Amino acid sequence: MTAIHPMALFRLSVLGPLASRKELDRGELNAILESIASQTYDIPGSKRVHLSRQTIQKWYYDFKCGGVYALEPKLRSDKNKCQLPENIQEAILSAKRDNHSRSIKTIIGMLENTGMVAKGSLSKATVHRFLRVHELSRRSKSSADTIERRSFVAARACDLWQGDVLHGPSIITETGLRKTYLVSLLDDASRLICHSAFCFGETALDIEGVLKQALLKRGLPLKLVVDNGAAYRSGSLQGICARLKIQLVYCRAYEPEAKGKLERYHRTFREQFLNEIHAHKITNLADLNARLWAWVEHIYHQNPHGGLDGKTPLARYREDLAHITQLSIRTNALDEIFYHRDKRKVRKDGAVQWDGQMYEVPHHYVGETIILVIDPHIQKALYIESAEGKRLASVTLLNKASNLNRKRQRPDVMVQPDLPHMMDAVEHAFTKYNTQLQLSTVPEINLTNITE
Predict the structure, then answer these.
(1) Full-model pTM
(2) What per-residue confidence (pLDDT) applies to 437?
(3) 84 DSSP assignment
(4) Domain containing 108 — which CATH number?
(5) What is the CATH number of the domain that holds 264?
(6) Strand 193-199 and strand 223-226: pairing?
(7) 258 in a domain, yes or no?
(8) What is the distance between the alpha carbons of residues 347 and 398, in angstroms, rounded to a whole number?
(9) Are residues 180 and 67 in the same domain?
(10) Are residues 291 and 357 in the same domain?
(11) Taking all residues of the chain, what is their mean pLDDT, rounded to a whole number?
């Protein structure tokens, strides 16, 4: 006996009295249909709870003609048949087969940019069904987490920035093949990329360079959320954030979900940028960064974002311009904030050592602990300052050859010795010593006075 489809059994249970009665009185069918339609149902595979009168009536006549098997769901005659034109189908398949990592959104954007389809006329669901028929659509399930996760969003732009590093492509340079790293800062509220740049490393200096450009372009954030890596834990980055009054927040190790918005941006970046460029044709970092900035400003910032109710990141950021704290310090003052600082003790010869080089400071700082201020981009010490940040004096590279004929610092007044006074003191000491010596002399023994 053929098994009955579960949906057929559900529909039979809905019909209820209509299925059990062979004949109905005049007008009775309409009354029963209205009664059944007014109830709520747990419909399999659907979130709806109500059924229309016309649907129930159709099930009733199907049951009368073919019994319970007639209540089974019918397969669509156009199932697995695509209504898209042949040229559109071929373009979709070609785009996907050429790069399996391309997302549906990217494919639709390619078709719209070439004029094959009108903007907004091709839905993602249609493309997904078409690719699924050809077994070219992939969907991954999220793993179950035991840690409690909560969605959040900053109230205003520049309330919270997220920072991270993404491994980029290797490019051919004059010194050979070199790997690149993408350092990015994203605004949580607007999803705007405050600044992003490819670097040849992921050091603290690379991160600080991106942060400096982001501050100049987008203003001061209240908080900066970063990884727990060594580059983000550097004392230089912590000092910069402290001087700018930016709260530096570290994520737990191996928990990228804490920066979920930036991780999602990285996924979009891979699909729309990394998968589309030809890294073997790029010969320098400037060329790679020029392509990156063009894509960010003209594509990513201008496209509506699903998490922003259809707004673009740039439009959402501009809504909060009145609340953003703009950088009010001069550029040279900002440079000083980003200088690195190391504690050093001044040696007896008035010199301090840094990075294998000796620097001279004013001689009156001998023996003191000072802060040596360094420009990390040119690897040179510039001046010294106090623990409170007050600039004390400039420093110069030690030049031993020039120091040979250098006039030494001397006291302004030389103290002349008082020779007569010194001679009197010596004579007095000699006399006192001689007197003590005479008093301690043992008297001679006269043997003639000794009797038997």
Answers:
(1) 0.62
(2) 60
(3) S
(4) 1.10.10
(5) 3.30.420.10
(6) unpaired
(7) yes
(8) 13
(9) no
(10) no
(11) 84
Would you say residue 7 has pLDDT above 70? yes
Whether residue 147 is contained in a domain is answered as: no
Residue 261 tokens, joined: 């918005």
* 425 in a structural domain: no
State whether 184 and 122 are in the same domain.
no
User: Mean pLDDT across the stretch 380-390?
Assistant: 86
**Is residue 419 in some structural domain?**
no
Is the pLDDT assigned to residue 195 strictly greater than 60? yes
In this structure, what are the phi and psi dihedrals at residue 21, rounded to the nearest 5 degrees?
-105, 135
Question: What are the pLDDT digits (tens) for 31-88?
Answer: 888 888 998 888 888 888 889 989 999 988 888 888 888 888 876 655 556 778 889 9
Q: Which of 37, 71, 105 is the last residue of a domain?
A: 71
Q: What sign results for the dihedral spanned by CA atoms 42, 45, 47, 53?
A: negative
Q: What confidence score (pLDDT) does residue 418 get?
A: 60
Question: Cα torsion for 154, 146, 263, 189, to the nearest 10°?
Answer: -10
Secondary structure of 379-400 in the HEC alphabet?
Answer: CEEEEEECCCCCEEEECEECCH
Please tell me whether residue 150 adopts helix, strand or coil conformation: coil
| Helix residue ranges per DSSP H, 183-259 | 204-218, 235-243
Which residues on adjacent β-strands are paired with residue 358? 353
Range of the domain at 117: 86-133
**366 in the same domain as 217:** no
* 344 contacts 354 by C-beta, under 8 angstroms: yes
Task: Give the list of residues 6+ apart from residue 112 with CB closer than 8 angstroms, or none.
Answer: 118, 119, 122
For residues 315 and 391, membership in a common domain is answered with no
pLDDT at position 419: 60
Report in angstroms the alpha-carbon separations of 12 from 4, 55, 60, 63.
11, 13, 9, 8
DSSP 177-205: EEEEEEEEEEETTT--EEEEEEES--SHH
End-to-end alpha carbon distance in the chain: 159
Task: Report yes or no: 384 and 351 within 8 Å, Cβ to Cβ.
Answer: no
